[in-house]
Every structure is written in structure tokens, then in C-alpha cells.
Amino acid sequence: MALFKKKNANYISAKETKRISRENRKITDEMEKKRNRKNIPESEYLSQMKNPENVVEFDDVHTYFFTDIGTVKAVDGVSFEVPQGKTVGIVGESGCGKSVTSLSLMQLVQRPQGQTVQGEIRFNTGDKVYNIVNTPTSAMQKLRGNEMAMIFQEPMTALNPVFRIGEQVDEITMLHNPDMPKAQVKARTLEMLKLVGIANCDGVYKMYPHELSGGMRQRVCIAIGLACNPRLIIADEPTTALDVTIQAQILDLMRNLKDKINSSIMLITHDLGVIAEMADYVVIMYAGRVVEKGTAREIFNTPSHPYTIGLMRSKPVVGKKVDKLYSIPGKVPNPINMPDYCYFRDRCELRCEKCQGSYPEVIRLSPTHEVSCYRYQDRPEEGWLVKEHPGEEGKISE
Length: 398
Fold this sequence. Notes:
Elements: H1 2-9, H2 14-35, E1 54-67, E2 70-83, E3 87-91, H3 98-106, E4 114-124, E5 129-131, H4 137-143, E6 148-151, H5 155-158, H6 165-176, H7 182-195, H8 201-205, H9 214-226, E7 232-236, H10 244-261, E8 264-269, H11 272-278, E9 281-286, E10 289-295, H12 296-301, H13 306-313, E11 363-364, E12 370-371, E13 384-386, E14 393-395
Parallel strand pairs: 3-8, 3-9, 6-7, 7-8
Antiparallel strand pairs: 1-2, 1-4, 4-5, 9-10, 10-12, 11-12, 13-14
Helix pairs in contact: 6-7, 7-9, 9-10
């Protein structure tokens, strides 16, 4: 009997599914109707940056997926900035909202089920500041590829298998420069292929994606992303499918290209080694929220949130012999029924009595270091942190 009740705890009836689906369809239809209006005045989607030196400002962004079994809060109040000419690393386990955050910026979240329902994403082109959440599709088509570009996670699926490499890189340049002669477009494509370290540019120009190795395909994806010298490059796991040697080459390439065209990079990855090498600032995400952010030095030298500490403990250390790598216990909460307290509390080995309250507010440990954790509520000005092992406390070391 107990087993039967446990099975029914996560059961949802067809009648309930139909009701949820009907309610969600009303919500998404209303949002799509507002988005699909014609002749939207610029005043509705132009904004002002809080700091003009930033390229992007995420301000309390909420992106939800309205499914037949409930509303999935994939991004639930994310706020951080990407400064001009800097690299910001977004770190977190699978399903924490990293990719959905970047897709919200590009307006590539699958609609109508996926919608950014709240907050602002301010993008600075230099001339204007767009609130991407309200920007119509016609204006976004001019921004995507031209002002912001995305290097997708898997190059084999990002490239079209039935078109030659040259045609796919040409398309980006022609789309944003319709008056450019074809000969000049091809010259630009060959220049970009050479820029990303492809020696046989003329040969690769005529090849299909399946004729190239994984590293070469990834370089082509980077060339497509950089074809129009964007102000922002979003790199979603750019080295995941590559071997270690090629990873190092791709990271060196991205770092050099960023300096050449003076762009900013949003680097999404699971690899803390890549973050340590590439990032100026680090954002730690968990269950759709930012739990800690700061400079790379602050995050690696003085990790403060228990989740960040767990991530640091779970990576192997050169010269340190262990029988088994540490892993964070427990599992991520259900994104449809998120708790009203700290999302990490049930997995946290450092929780205290204060953690029984509602979700903790953001606490500033330094001008650039912020954390959402009750352990710092009464002493942010003292610069306290939790050390590597549970139960130990100490001052932040300079």
C-alpha cells in the first residue's frame, strides 16, 4: 500500500495535464500576440545601460518553459554583467540554466513554449542600447551575427551537412552586407578561415562538413561567428567535443581573436580549468539562479558559496593523490516545483539554522564579489568565507 502511494506522489492525470496545457496556451498566446505586432515603436525596446562600459547587462531575467506538466523555471532571476573587452565564464552543472541564459540573449529560446517573462537584457551596440526581451524579431535579425554571435556546442550539428563550408560562411557576410560584391564576400570568407588557423583555406572553402575533423569544424564555427566582427561572442561549450591538444589550440585562438577585434566573450563551460585560463569574471549558476559571482581570482582563491566550494573540491589536483574524487551529494530540485528556500539547502554540507528561511538575498563580500548564502548575512563587511572542509571558517586571504 505504501509503495502504491509513493508511486502516485509524482503522478499527474490526463485531466490535470489538459488543464495545465490549456492555461499555459493562454499565457503563451498572449505573449506571442504582443511579440508579433507590427510597427513597434523604438521607445518600447530601447533602454539605457547602468554602466556604459558594459556590453550586456542581465537584470533579474526569468525565462520559463510552459509545458504540459507545469512551468519549468529554467532561468529564475539571473543578474550579471559582461564588460567591454572582457571574458565572463558561466559555470554550473547540466540543467542549471547556462545555455538558456545565452539563448535568451540571442532570442533563440524555442517558442511559443519558451518565453522570457520578466526582467531586462540590455545590449549595448555603441550607438543604441536594446532591451532584448522586448526587441522585435526584425530588429533582432540585424543584431544576431552582426553585433552578437554564438559558437554552438556541437560543430557537426551546427553546420549544415548539405552545403559547402564556403557557402555557409559567405551567408553571414552577405546577410549583413547585401551590397558587397560576391568576389569580396569570398575574399572575406577566406580571410576568416585563415584567421582561425586553417592553412588550406581554398581547399576547405569547397569542402563539406563531414570532410573535416572535429577541430577543423569548430574553427569553421568560430569563423562564422566572427565574420562580422561582433561586439559579443557567446561560446557555448566550445571545446567539449575536442581532444585536449585541440582544446588548447581553440582557447588560444579565441583569446587572440578577442584581442584583435576588441570583443567580449561569454564562455559557457563545465571545465573549471578552461575558466581559470580564459575568464576575467566568473558567474556560478545553480538551478536557474546565480549563487556567486566575482573576478576569477576571487572565485578560485576564496570560493564562498557551498556549491562553489563543492565544485572546487570535485576537481582533480596535480600532485594530490586521492582514492576517489569528491562529488556533491543529492540531486538538483525539480524545476517545476522549486522550493521556497535556498535551492542548494538539501544538498549542502555547510547548512546552518538560518538556512531554514526563505531564499537568501545577495550579499556583497567585496566591490566585485557577491554571494547568496545565509552564512554571510551578518558579516559581509568582515570578508568571511567557508574553507574547503565543512565546519572550518577563516578570513579571506589576499
